[in-house]
Write a structure and sequence with these properties.
By secondary structure, this protein is mostly helical. The protein contains 25 helices and two strands. A two-stranded antiparallel ribbon has the order 1-2. The longest helix has 29 residues, at 446-474.
């Protein structure tokens, strides 16, 4: 068989490859209630990018680059606004965090943290499931969910293989353990802005379209902590009672964890440096109110970049803490372009009048910002989050949310908070978030993930709608950015 045949796209992929730009062309050329050319083009670009993000005939990052050529060719928005979307501060924050966690990967700190946390768990399968879930949820509060999943799931898989579980698809306990990590990264992702690209994307939209000033990380934590805690507790119970393994205990798993931890030996100097640099960056990010007047330019993004640069300078025994070839090989480049594409799409939707058109269509459902408004925007976000990436869902929904409620002279912040929390909760499909994508890559039973994930999504949706409405109604600070 020729190499071309091996790499030839499937007929279904070809159909999706053509359908995206075809939908764009139709929406661009067909009059839609007298909407201007630029508005129709922006709506068409939204459909094109959503289609490709869902069906993935090309890499998600490639779809993230679409705003540049399309805006340039069809004049949908000023190019300086589109291009600068790819150099936002928050992209630098993702870059810095990625480099710092690459230091962990190089020296085995990621494995040490996971193994040490699980050393005392025991061999109970149910306990293993909930502990993996809790650890992943906690870590995803300060690390992107893809990074948490990519570092934790290999440990789970290695542990399972050590006790003879190779086929995850046909193993209930194997699938449950890996899904526990994947869903943990989604459930805890909204705890802080560092939880991933969707959160940083929301921060950018708030700063640019609502407040016009820096949004403090500490403010985020204070506002969203109640919802995040409830979601984690809810999913904890769901994992405990709905994800029932097919075995009661995992023979030898505790011994395996101890053996692997012993094999790592004492904590190396390089690991201590990697942990210290990351902690300094986190402290600077969350302690921003303490020094913002003294160092106004040292935003969280630049704090992470500063520590990342420092990691290349530090040497132990003549060896650098990390080298660029290693960092480059372990960089999530696609995430950066997906994130930037979301920002660019949001700017095009806003600048072309498309966001306002959506806002006008949704305004009747928004009413005075009551329960119906919370329900409509929450359902819209949850549906998009399950079928496309959570970053893409936030890129689509948050600008529309802001524009809709601003057009009604209502404060959009409470609704932005609510849809952002829901936007982190990707459970059903591999395309929904980094955690489920990594889990799918390791061969978990996708039917189990879809069925149980649908139950989890509905449960979280109902809870967040009620809790979000209650907070927006009775807690004035919930409407402050």
């Amino acid at each position: 068989m020729s190499a071309d045949a091996l790499t030839a796209p499937s007929p279904a992929k070809l159909r999706h490859l053509v359908a995206g730009p075809l939908a764009f062309a139709v929406l661009l050329l067909v009059p839609l209630g007298g909407l201007p050319f630029e508005t129709r083009g922006a709506i068409g670009l939204l459909v094109w990018m959503a289609w490709w993000w869902i069906s993935r005939p090309v890499h998600l990052a490639v779809t993230g680059l679409l705003p540049i050529p399309i805006a340039a060719i069809f004049g949908l928005a000023p190019m300086d606004q589109v291009v600068t979307s790819y150099s936002q501060d928050t992209i630098l924050l993702l870059l810095g965090a990625n480099i710092l966690t690459s230091v962990w990967l190089r020296w085995g700190l990621d494995r040490r943290i996971g193994l040490a946390a699980l050393r005392g768990v025991g061999t109970s399968a149910s306990k293993q499931i909930v502990v993996w879930f809790v650890i992943s949820a906690v870590l995803s509060g300060v690390l992107p969910n893809t990074i948490v999943a990519a570092t934790m799931i290999p440990i789970v898989v290695a542990m399972l293989r050590s006790i003879g579980i190779e086929d995850l698809w046909n193993s209930k306990v194997g699938t449950a353990l890996v899904i526990a990590v994947a869903w943990g990264t989604s459930a805890g992702g909204a705890a802080t802005p560092l939880g991933g690209a969707p959160n940083l994307l929301t921060v950018g939209f708030i700063e640019e379209s609502v407040t016009g000033q820096e949004f403090l990380f500490l403010t985020w934590v204070m506002r969203l902590a109640p919802i995040t805690v409830v979601i984690v507790l809810l999913m904890f119970l769901f994992m405990r009672f709905a994800m029932r393994p097919d075995v009661a205990t995992l023979p030898g798993s505790k011994e395996y964890i101890q053996e692997e931890l012993d094999a790592l030996g004492p904590m190396k100097t390089q690991e201590k440096w990697g942990l210290a640099l990351f902690l300094v960056a986190v402290v600077l990010a969350f302690g921003r109110p303490l020094y913002s007047d003294l160092l106004p330019g040292l935003t969280p993004a630049f704090a992470f970049v500063a520590m990342a640069v420092t990691s290349f300078v530090i040497r132990t025994r003549g060896e650098p803490l990390i080298t660029w070839p290693f960092a480059q090989a372990n960089m999530y480049w696609g995430l950066f372009y997906l994130f930037a594409g979301g920002i660019a799409l949001g700017r095009i939707l806003g600048g072309s009048g498309a966001a306002q058109a959506f806002a006008d269509a949704l305004a009747p459902y928004a009413g005075s910002g009551g329960f119906t408004a919370v329900l409509v925007f929450s359902v819209l976000t949850m549906v998009l989050t399950q079928v496309t990436s959570n970053t893409a869902a936030i890129a689509i929904v948050v600008p529309i949310t802001i524009t809709t409620f601003q057009s009604l002279d209502l404060n959009p912040i409470p609704f932005v908070y609510i849809v952002t929390v829901i936007g982190n909760c990707g459970f059903i499909l591999p395309s929904s978030a980094g955690g489920p994508a990594v889990a799918a890559g390791y061969g978990v039973n996708l039917k189990t993930m879809a069925v149980k994930g649908l139950m989890a999504a509905l449960l979280v949706l109902m809870t967040v709608v009620v809790l979000g409405y209650t907070l927006a109604r009775w807690w004035p600070a919930f409407g402050v950015a």
